[in-house]
Flagellar biosynthesis regulator FlaF
Amino acid sequence: MLSLATPAVPPGLPAAPLQRPTGAMTAYGAVIRETENPRAIEYRVLARAAAMLELAALPSAGPADLPAAVHENRMVWTAFAADLAGDGNSCEDMLRVRLLSLARWVFAESDRVLRERKSPQALIDVNRAVMLGLQPDAAAQPDPM
């Protein structure tokens, strides 16, 4: 059984901070943002959030694992929504609208998962679908919508 204080984290991934990093972690994060492709960063954080949700849905997960995983996923989508809503975002308007709508759905579905004890599978599926769109090969293909 997992500890109440530690949410389920996929092997090889560090535990998600429930607070914003400070000090060296902030500086390290700035280096990553400056050197890594933004799509790769987005892909990585979505994969991590999806993996946390998957582990939190397992029967062996502790009672705090699902709320922690949902919180982490909300933080990811909050960051996406803030970036998408910013004036400096270079995404096409239609893509921005679609992703902002999807973020709103993620927030509502997160509430349903926690309040109505729904499975987080739909949240996982959305993260995985967006991850597919972030892959390098997907960027070269035309938008089907």
About this structure: The mean pLDDT is 81.
